[in-house]
User: Which sequence fits this backbone?
């Protein structure tokens, strides 16, 4: 039998697991139950009434969180020499092309987002088996394959994230840190949820937002009212 730690017992004592909280309430409670000696991430888990196996119900999108993610996002810009300065000035952590393609081929994936240009995508194809499972493959739909490299880098650094429904019908996304004010947690969460609502497939029948849960890295989940 799994032993419940003292901190988890304390966290559980501060929430009513049978209650459905408003998004504002949850944004306050998650801070109360996340008393750790590190700045934990706060995540949302949104269960959708879709069948991800169907192409037209494979919900995917991008959103710029108004208060950023609270994370230091490491960005690799795979660009041609004429775009290198543009990427560097925008704040990319790593900039280059062939040397980084080789590093990735050798197993290096120490970045959070890769931004590239349409003309470079052909070189990334053979690396799909490495980048795909890690969610690092650039995609025009998420704005990571573009000629406007500076804009793409700046947006990612400012809090732009992409989200995608998993095979289980759930979207998981990190929307901030425990150190954020409750209002900032609320604003980021609302922005993500509203964007997910806008992407409801026409072919999706019945309840679209089935459940929403908020938690920090080591806290229990807080059930949230889906009537946002």
Assistant:
């Amino acid at each position: 039998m799994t032993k419940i730690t003292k901190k988890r017992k304390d966290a559980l004592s501060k929430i009513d697991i049978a209650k459905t909280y408003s998004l504002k309430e949850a944004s306050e409670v998650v801070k109360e139950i996340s008393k750790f000696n590190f700045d934990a991430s706060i995540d949302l888990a949104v269960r959708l009434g879709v069948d991800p196996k169907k192409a037209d119900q494979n919900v995917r999108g991008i959103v710029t969180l108004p208060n950023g993610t609270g994370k230091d996002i490491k960005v690799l810009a795979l660009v041609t020499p004429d775009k290198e300065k543009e990427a560097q000035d925008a704040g990319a952590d790593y900039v280059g092309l062939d040397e980084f393609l080789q590093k990735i081929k050798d197993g290096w994936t120490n970045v959070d987002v890769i931004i590239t240009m349409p003309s470079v995508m052909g070189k990334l194809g053979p690396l799909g088996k490495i980048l795909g499972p890690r969610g690092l493959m650039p995609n025009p739909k998420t704005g990571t394959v573009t000629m406007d490299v500076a804009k793409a880098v700046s947006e990612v650094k400012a809090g732009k994230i992409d989200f995608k429904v998993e095979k289980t019908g759930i979207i998981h996304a990190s929307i901030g840190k425990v150190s954020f004010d409750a209002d900032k947690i609320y604003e980021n969460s609302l922005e993500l949820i509203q964007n997910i609502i806008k992407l409801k497939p026409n072919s999706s029948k019945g309840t679209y937002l089935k459940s929403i849960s908020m938690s920090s890295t080591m806290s229990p989940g807080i059930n949230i009212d889906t009537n946002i």
